[in-house]
Write a structure and sequence with these properties.
mainly alpha; about 0% strand; about 475 residues
Length: about 475
C-alpha cells in the first residue's frame, strides 16, 4: 500500500501545482482552463498506471467490457478515418480511452487504500462544494449590500464557462452527500448530521438560482425511480427530495431578499414559463437523426457534429443521438449493452446488500451515475471537460465498490493485458498533450462565452 500512496500524494501535489499555473494563465477561458487541467489529470493518471499496473490488484475492465471497449475504439478509428477531420476524431477517441483509464486507476487506488474511498474522496467532494457554496453566499451578501448595481442571478455563480456546466457537475456530486461519511477516529456522522444537509440545500439553491432545468429534472427522475427500489434506495431518494425542497425555498429567499433590497423585481427562471420548452433542442435532435439515417454504420465521425455548423449547438444535447450520429449505431448498441448490464448487476448487488455496512454509499454512487445519464438525455454531460472528469472518477469509485475482479488463469496473460491497457492510455494522453501544445496559442483571448458552441476547446468548431 505504501507505493500507491506515495505516488498518489506526489500526483496530487504535481496536479495541484500545474492546476494553479493553468488557472493563473491570462487570457484563457474557464472552459479551456478546465480542458487543460483535464488533460494534465489524464496524463498523470496514465503515468501513474504505467508504474503501478503490474502490482497485484490493479483494476482493469472485465473481459466483456475490455472487448467492448476494443470494438468501440476500432469502430471509432474506422469512423474517424473516413471523417472530415481524422485528427479531431482521434482526440475524441483519446478522451474516451483516458476517461476509462482514470476510472480504473481510481478503482485500483480505492482497493489498495480503502480509506481513500471512505474518507479522502468524500472529504475532497465536501471541501470542493463548500468552497463553491461559500462563494455563492458571499455573492449573495454582496448583491444585498450593493443593491444599486445591476443584478443578474448568474452573477451569484462563478467558476465555470457556463452555469449549466456547473449544473452538470453538481448533478453528480450533490447526491454523494446523501450517504454517511465515515470520519477517521470519530463518530460516523459527526459532521454529516448537520453539515451535509445544509450543504445539499445550498447546492440545490444554486441550481435553482441558475435555472439549470436538466439538473433538477435529473434529480427528480432519479429520486422517483429510487424511491420504489428498496429501503436503502428510498432513504437516499428521500434525502435528495428534502434537499430539493429546502434548496427551492432558499432560492426564493435569495430572490426575495435582493428584490426587497433593490426595489426591483428579480427574474427567476423556475417561476416563469421558461422552465418549459426544449430551447432549440428539437432542431439539434432532428439534425442528429438525419445524420444517423445518412451514416448509420460508422456515423459522421467522433466529435464531428461540430462540423455541421448547427446554429443552436455543437453537440446534439442527447447522449444516444450523439453516439449514434457520430460513432454509428453499432457503437450505440455496444454502449447500451455495457452500461445496461453494469447498472442492472450493480443494482441487484445493492439490493442484496441493502442491510449491510456501506449500503448508503452504494446507493448514492448509483444515484449519481443514473442522474448523470438522465441529464445526458437533454444536455452535454458527455461533452464538457469537468463533468467528463468527474463522471470518470465517480464511475471508478463505483467500479471499486461493485466490481469483483477475477484473476486471469495465466499471470503472463494478465500482465500482458495490463501492459496493453496502460500503453493505450499513455498513447491517448500523449496525443491530448500534443493537441494542447499545438493549439495553446489559439486559446489566448478566445471568446469567454463560446459564441460558436464549445466542444473540445471553447471555440471548438472546425471545417476540416
Amino acid at each position: 500500500m505504501k507505493l500507491p500512496l506515495v505516488f498518489f500524494v506526489n500526483s496530487v501535489v504535481v496536479g495541484g501545482l500545474v492546476g494553479a499555473i493553468i488557472y493563473s494563465l491570462p487570457g484563457i477561458t474557464w472552459h479551456d482552463q478546465q480542458r487543460l487541467f483535464q488533460i494534465v489529470i489524464f496524463f498523470l493518471s496514465a503515468g501513474f498506471s504505467a508504474v503501478l499496473f503490474a502490482r497485484p490488484g490493479y483494476q482493469t475492465l472485465s473481459w466483456p467490457s475490455l472487448l467492448a471497449l476494443l470494438a468501440v475504439v476500432l469502430l471509432g478509428f474506422a469512423s474517424g478515418g473516413l471523417a472530415l477531420s481524422p485528427e479531431w476524431a482521434l482526440t475524441e477517441i483519446s478522451l474516451l480511452v483516458c476517461s476509462v483509464g482514470l476510472a480504473c486507476l481510481i478503482a485500483s487506488l480505492i482497493r489498495w487504500i480503502p480509506v481513500f474511498g471512505e474518507v479522502y474522496f468524500p472529504g475532497v467532494v465536501r471541501a470542493l462544494l463548500l468552497v463553491i457554496v461559500l462563494r455563492f453566499y458571499v455573492s449573495w451578501f454582496s448583491a444585498l449590500s450593493h443593491a444599486d448595481l445591476f443584478f443578474s442571478p448568474w452573477s451569484l455563480l462563478d467558476g465555470f464557462s457556463n452555469v449549466r456546466h456547473q449544473g452538470q457537475f453538481l448533478t453528480m456530486v450533490m447526491p454523494l452527500l446523501a450517504s454517511s461519511w465515515a470520519l477517521a477516529g470519530g463518530p460516523k456522522e459527526r459532521l454529516s448530521t448537520w453539515f451535509d444537509p445544509l450543504l445539499m440545500a445550498s447546492v440545490t439553491a444554486m441550481v435553482f438560482v441558475a435555472g439549470t432545468r436538466g439538473t433538477i429534472a435529473a434529480w427528480l427522475v432519479a429520486a422517483s425511480v429510487f424511491f420504489f427500489v428498496s429501503p436503502g434506495a428510498t432513504r437516499v431518494a428521500r434525502r435528495v427530495l428534502i434537499a430539493l425542497l429546502a434548496g427551492y425555498i432558499l432560492s426564493l429567499a435569495v430572490f426575495m431578499s435582493i428584490a426587497l433590497a433593490s426595489g426591483q423585481p428579480v427574474f427567476s427562471r423556475f417561476a416563469s414559463s421558461e422552465v418549459f420548452g426544449l430551447s432549440g433542442r428539437w432542431d439539434l435532435w432532428r439534425t442528429a437523426l438525419e445524420s444517423v439515417v445518412a451514416s448509420p454504420w460508422l456515423g459522421i465521425g467522433p466529435m464531428h457534429f461540430v462540423s455541421l455548423d448547427h446554429p443552436s449547438g455543437a453537440h446534439p444535447h442527447q447522449m444516444f443521438l450523439q453516439i449514434a450520429s457520430e460513432w454509428g449505431v453499432p457503437v450505440l448498441l455496444i454502449t447500451l449493452a455495457v452500461v445496461g448490464v453494469w447498472l442492472g448487476r450493480s443494482t441487484r448487488m445493492a439490493m442484496q446488500e441493502d442491510a449491510t455496512a456501506g449500503s448508503d454509499l452504494r446507493w448514492v454512487l448509483l444515484f449519481a451515475i443514473f442522474a448523470a445519464l438522465v441529464q445526458a438525455q437533454v444536455d452535454g454531460v458527455l461533452v464538457m471537460p469537468y463533468p467528463q472528469l468527474w463522471l470518470a472518477m465517480i464511475s471508478g469509485w463505483a467500479l471499486a465498490v461493485f466490481y469483483r475482479p477475477k484473476t486471469l488463469a495465466h499471470p503472463a496473460v494478465a500482465k500482458f493485458v495490463g501492459f496493453a491497457f496502460v500503453a493505450v492510455q499513455l498513447l491517448a494522453a500523449s496525443y491530448l498533450a500534443f493537441v494542447a501544445f499545438r493549439d495553446f496559442g489559439k486559446l489566448i483571448d478566445a471568446p469567454e462565452w463560446c459564441p460558436f458552441g464549445p466542444r473540445f476547446w471553447c471555440d471548438g468548431r472546425f471545417n476540416g
